[in-house]
Amino acid sequence: VGVEFAGAGFGAMLREPAWVWASGGQSFQPLLMPRGPIQPVAELTEEQLGAAIALADLIPDGAVSGPTSPRELAIRRFGLAMGRAEPAEAVVDYTVALEALFLDGSDLGEARRRFALNGAVFAATSQAERKRIYDELSNIYLARSLMVHGVSPSASRTRKVHANIGTIRDQAREIARSSLRKALTSGWPNEESFVRALLDDVPADP
């Protein structure tokens, strides 16, 4: 719902406590606890808390314990990214989450362009916002490719990515957060919906 992880120290609980289980047993499923820089404590209003509970009810169980679909993987990798202390590692996780969301069912040819186009038409809330999100998603995809494959169009682009990796991480986090929230509450996108949105954006012939 857009509220940052907060707390007085680093998250340390990596297993569910024994009292969760009536039999007294212990779960071996790790909890997604924040392990990066801690944000200032934020008080939730009753409305925000209700929204968080309603959103949590929409998250499939497999998204936490063992994702078996692109949708579940998108949610899990977003959660993992939120706990990364290193921006470059977070960018990789956020990009995987966004790929699972924006490329599900798509032809993988020209993946970077499809990633940015599909993401822009889904994540933007206005026509003016589409170009900005398209450019940000293009840079996010490039940064992930550089981190994982060491591939970049030029040395100057490589230096620019490294110099701005924190900003790229923040952009990826915000697009992933708003897009996943929209997908959970309003419906998951697919290739047909991406194509329809892109066609609707083409000006009619005079």
Q: What does the model show?
A:
It is a single chain. 60% of the residues lie in helices and 0% in strands. By secondary structure, the protein is mainly α. The longest helix has 23 residues. It is globular.
Features:
206 residues; mainly alpha; disordered C terminus; 9 helices
- The percent range for strand residues is under 5%
Task: Quickly count the helices.
Answer: 9
Report the C-alpha radius of gyration, rounded: 19 Å
Listing every helix as H and every strand as E from the N terminus to the C terminus, the arrangement reads HHHHHHHHH
Oligomer, anyone? single chain
User: Rough shape?
Assistant: globular
Distance between the termini: 43 Å
What class do helices, strands and sheet pairing give?
mainly alpha
Mean pLDDT: 78
Helicity level: 55-70%
Low-confidence parts, pLDDT < 50 over ≥5 residues? 7-15, 202-206
Number of strands: 0
The major beta sheet can be summarized as: none
Task: Describe this structure in a few short sentences.
The chain has 206 residues and is mainly α. The chain contains 9 helices and no strands.
How do the helices and strands line up, and which of them pair or pack?
Elements: H1 46-58, H2 62-65, H3 70-82, H4 87-102, H5 111-123, H6 127-149, H7 155-163, H8 165-186, H9 191-200
Helix pairs in contact: 3-4, 3-8, 4-5, 4-6, 4-8, 5-6, 5-9, 6-8
